[in-house]
Every structure is written in C-alpha cells, then in structure tokens.
Amino acid sequence: MLSKPVPGEDLFVYLAVSNSAISSALIREELGAQHPVFYTSKALLDAETCYPKMEKLILALVVSARKLRPYYQAHRVIVMTDFPLRSILHSPDASQRLMKWAIELSQYDLLYRPKTAIKAQTLADFVAKFTPSAEKEKLVNQRKESSKTDGTSAEPSKPSDMWQLRVDGASNQKGAGAGVVIITPDGTLLEQAITLGFPASNNEAEYEALLAGLRLAKELIIKKLAIYSDSQLITNQASGEYMAKHPRMILYLDKVQELLKAFPTFTIQQVPRAENAHADALASLRSALDTQFRCSIPVEHLDRPSIEEIELIDTMQIDEDPSWQDPIIDYLTNGNLPTDKSEARKVQQKAARYYMLGNKLIRRSYSGPYLTCIKYPQTLEVLCKIHDGECGNHSGGRSLAQKALNIGYFWPTMRHDSAEYVKKCDRCQRYKLIPNLPAEVYHPQNSPWPFMQWAIDLVGPLPPAPAKKEMMIVATDYFTRWIEAQALSSTKEADVERFIWRNIICRFGCP
C-alpha cells in the first residue's frame, strides 16, 4: 500500500543498483514506521552498464528526481546512502556527466545521510545489495570447496565496512611521483596519480603519497581505513615502531600523525611490492603507463613539499563583513544550509557550480578555464593590474570584466565593479574620446536658416552684350550659397529694386 505524504514533512529515498538495472524507493516515516510513497526503476543501456557503481547510484537518484519531480519540489528529500555522493558530485575531478547531474540536482533540497536499518519489510526486499567482486566470489567458492572436502559447513562471511588505502612513491632520474589507490568496501577503485615538481628522495615520495591518500580519504569522510604501503620505513615510523631522526622525516611524520587524527579507526601495514603493483604503476606514471591511459586517470601536480607551508605572521584579528562565499563554502565543507528554505535552495543551486580546492573556492566554467573566486580587496587589486598595470590598455568596463574572466577570476559583481573602476580612473577621464565630437573647431554661422540673409554686389563693366548690357547684379544666400544673377544695361535704382522684388522676395520671401 502506497502512502500519501503530509505537506512539509521530510521524505527519504533509498537507492539500489545492479549490473543491468537501477531502482529507488521514496518513503515517509510516521510514528517510527516507514511507509512507501513511490517506486522507480530503469533498465540500463549498454553504455550505462559500464558506469562505475558510484555513477550508477547518482544516476538512480537523477532518474528518481525526474520521475518524481512533484515530490522533490514540494518536500525536502534525505538521501540514505553509505557512499560519499555529495563529495563526488562536488569533486574538482568530476566528469562532464557528473557536472550535468550535479547542476540538475541542485534545484532540489537534498540532504545526504548514512543509511540505517530499514524498518519496512517491503523495502527490505527492494533495496538490493552491491554484487560482490570477482575476487570475493573466488574466495567464497574456495571456502565452499574446502568445506566440502573437510566435511565442515562454511559460514557466510560478514561484509566489512573497512576502506583500503594503498600508496606508493617513486623517485628516479625522470623525476618523482606518487600513486594513491582507494578501494571501497564493495570493491570500487578510486585512482590518483601525483607528479612532484621538486626534487625528492624515495622516502619523501613515499611520504607525499601517504599524505595525498590521507587528504583524499579525509575529503571522502571515511571513518574506517586500512593503509597499505610497501615501504618498511614509512609504515613503521607512522605506526610508532621506528623513530624519525632526519629533520625532514620528522616534519613529514608530524604531518601524517596530524591527518591520522581525522580517522576514528585505522590500521597501517606493510605489504610486499607485488601486492602493491597498482599504486606502484601510478607512481611511475611517466614510464609504466602508456599515453592512452593517462587521460582516464586524474593526475595532480605538487609544486612544493607538503611540509613547506606559508609562515603565519602574528596579526590582530579584524572583524570582516559576511562574504558571498561563506554560505557556499559552509555547505561544501560541512553540509550546513540556512534555516530559510528558499535561501537554502538558492545555496544548493549555486553550490552545484563550485568546488573546494584546499581553502579556495573554484567556479566551474564550460568554455574557459576554471575560475578562482575572490572577494574585496583582492578584486580591486586584480582590476588595477589588468586596467592600468604593465600590460594594461585602459579598456572599458565590459572589456575589463571579460579580461578578468579570461585570466581566471570570478566574483558576482565584477561587471558593476569594473564599470565603477573605469569611471574613477583619472587618465581615462582626461584623455578618453568624447562621442559625436567633430574633427574641427566649430565655425559660427551668420545666418541661422536658409534665405534669411543675402549678399548683393554689382559686377562690371563687362564686354558689351546684346542690348548694350555691360553690368551684372549678383545676389548670394549666406546659408545655402544659392546664387541669383541678372545682366543689366544700367545700374539705376529702379533696376536694382526690380531685381530684388522679382528674384528674391517673390521667390524666397522677405529676407
């Protein structure tokens, strides 16, 4: 029996995937009991069957939101899952497909919580567990065969929720690198290759790999972690059996112990190099893997060692006004949202286009580079360098804002700030071309409109013409330069009056 939700209450969604289909169940809770609201399912296409299990889970959530749009728009939906879906959607290494899904899901009020025990019996049969990996199936089959030969019954092994972290570092003449492999409890692999842009020994490369793996595991909010490395020195120093004596090793060890505090349960173990071949291949990416594999493996570049940090200067704390970045950073790092539902939905929609890179907020861009988000007074410094710096050409407001985008900076009011900055530039106001300004100096006009003022003059004597006409009277308009002329045999007063009456007054009016 399906249940009708009450307006304003929270709904819960459970996701399940298999090799050929994905499904979800939307439920509500009432008096401690779970009641189903609706079910969705979809058969995977041939291309979709090749998706990793993480992407299949996100696809199941997207399909559920598309088919049950009215429920998602009217209620806050809590996604019950044990996998870090929110971290993957906002990861800087997310693919274009995940970015599109993240933007599509940002319009809904979604929260992600770890999955607890399902009380409804109808959902117990619906939510499917992940199929075990091939290695686990082999182990189960071997145990069954051994139990048959021994005559004992094989007990089913309980699924472990321990995540595995395998790290390795390498240093040679071509440079230094590190490899990180994270294996989820269901067998999904997360790979990360790191190239070091500074000279490092083999032990330093091993420590860089361990630190990178711990940082990645911390971002995924992993609680139980098993760390494996083929370096005896690193594993024994991290576990406390060996003592670090070299100054750089002491700094690396302090950094590792600081990151290990974020994991309630963890183990560190040394394994043979043959069992750590995957991380070893990622560490030696330049020589061990072909070029065709590099495009599918995320590669990170470190410009300086992890132990070299910027020295902090003792300064007095000054209160700052709330920045536009604060609610987005708080949601991406801690998952906190404003109490107002409309404001919370706006923050979720905006956060789909951002991700955190260390302590910096980065905005995704489709056509250009990813944009670093800045705030005042950094915005003023960027505009100053672009507008009137060494390569500045004192461009206008719109051009200045577009140049800041092309360089890789973003803040919401950049177009308004660019226009205001150009208005305050002294050189722009002093030497800027004025629109509609003539190329020459204006010349004053004696006549404001046509045929208002005439100039009259007598020309002659000229060579005799028929009727003994030796003189000529000429009248010229000052505005249009129109000419009226007539030949005369004499220049008496009556002849001039007759010419003015006939050729000027009668034709063009009284001047």
TrEMBL record:
Domain RNase H type-1: 159-288
Biased composition, class Basic and acidic residues, residue ranges: 138-148
Integrase catalytic domain mapped to chain residues: 444-511
Nuclease is among the record's keywords: yes
Region called Disordered, residue ranges: 138-161
One GO MF term: RNA-directed DNA polymerase activity
Pfam families in alphabetical order: Integrase_H2C2, RT_RNaseH, RVT_3
SUPFAM superfamilies recorded: DNA/RNA polymerases, Ribonuclease H-like
Keyword set, alphabetical order: Endonuclease, Hydrolase, Nuclease, Nucleotidyltransferase, RNA-directed DNA polymerase, Transferase
CDD domains membership: RNase_HI_like
One GO-annotated biological process of the protein: DNA integration
UniProt protein name: Uncharacterized protein
Organism: Prunus dulcis
